[in-house]
Amino acid sequence: MKKIVLSETQADRLMNRVVSEQLQTENRYSQKVKSDFDYHGMKYNGNEIDWIDNVEFTVSFDIHVDARSYGIKDINVMNVRGPEVIEAVVIYYPEGSEDSVEDTVELKLNWDDVKVENDADIGWIGIDHEVEINLTSGQIVVHSKEI
Fold first, then answer.
1. pTM metric for this prediction
2. For the chain, domain boundaries
3. Comparing 34 with 136, which gets the higher pLDDT?
4. Is there a contact between 117 and 146 (Cβ–Cβ < 8 Å)?
């Protein structure tokens, strides 16, 4: 067995990383993610949205392994949950103005409608560090990619 010597800073960094990706329960995990908003054609205060700043938050999820006597049949990411509300900065140009306006808005997230993309050609299962949030008809629909 080899011995590894870490400085205090390295040990702190390692422990922070382990804690941020820690197993919450037997099959429940958490991951810090960054939002990627899909707001194409959406309006805010009657003006087309120019930009929405990405927001960082933590999501938790289950990894379910469907095992058979012959081996693993399937592995799925399920029960993705995160904050009910996030604050995002919406940037837009009021009609007739060349100066942008920034508003901080609270966006409610519906975690019951999460869509997880399954890709059979992947080497590991989990949540990507980026989630796509689609703004549609005044509702927020959260999509998460499994990679």
1. 0.67
2. 28-146
3. 34
4. yes
